[in-house]
Amino acid sequence: MKRLWLLFSQTATVLLAAYFVVATLKPQWLGNAPTMARAVSILEAPATAPGEIPPGSLRLAAQKASGAVVSINTSKAAGKHPNANDPWFKFFYGDQGNEPSGGLGSGVIVSPNGYILTNNHVVEGADEIEVFLNDSRHGKAKVIGTDPDSDLAVLKIELDKLPIMVLGNSDSIQVGDQVLAIGNPFGVGQTVTSGIVSALGRNQLGINTFENFIQTDAAINPGNSGGALVDTNGNLLGINTAIYSRSGGSMGIGFAIPVSTAKQVLDGLVKDGQVTRGWIGVEPNDLSPELAETFDLKTSEGVIITGVLQNGPAAKAGIHPGDIIASVGERKVADVTQLLSVVASLKPGVAAPFGIERKGQKLTLDVTPGVRPRPKLPSK
After folding, report:
1. 151 catalytically annotated
2. Is 225 an active-site residue?
3. What is the pLDDT of residues 237-258, one digit of tens each?
């Protein structure tokens, strides 16, 4: 019995070995028997047909928007030291300030006439600006105007048949919406990254005077400044401006100026050469517990007015010190930065309803804003 079992085991081993040899070298001898090669092919994903868009792809949005995003190279002439020609100065310090400096950034073509939106800090102080399109064309650009308060600038190039980007609606986006960031990070060439809207209405970051940023986790790096934040339809939602970073690279927190703000700046700079903003003439303060106690206030929401300019728009409308501004139009106001931004967006000469709380009573006052005065330049 033992001998028969041994013979059976050896025979089974030989047959199994022979089967694997034949299956590997001559699978056709086995007819319809499944082979290792065919078993592997069963696990392969079906190929996507040429031109077919994979599920979840943002290809169409990227293709629609990328042509209108440009790379911007700036150069600035070297500043010469007043003693640069002094032999003793050269002996101790060598030649100073002989090399020009340069910078990199991005921009968005928003008009067939060649107008480009970008950041003010990309072109600030530049003596020469060159714009490179995604189709390999390039040309010199001139500055139409700048708005340091919003960190936006408008350039113009003289080229034909320019691709343009459609302006989207930044007021309709919500946290969680998918977005793409397109620009020229580190000068490596046009790059598209994706993410979501992480937060809205970010302010008090100390970047601009008027802050109402869209926060996104789409990768934004140096060189992306002035580039486009677009929606899944390829429409412009914002101008990428800044990142939060401890290393200089992307950490998943980027900020973009909403296209609603960018459009206001674009229209003002192109038509008038300056941006006209609303102003009501008040001294606002965030509603702290101390101020609430001083003015005997029961609410903790809104902005308290501690001073009103005599004969200013707010005074004429009936706003008093101690009043709390809770809303402007349909927009709620939570802090001074938000109030400043909302009032600045108002059209001078057109009345807007202000939600006021005064001694526990809620009022609505129509305030006709004036033109925000230009800041006085420091005397030299």
Report:
1. yes
2. yes
3. 999 998 887 677 777 889 999 9
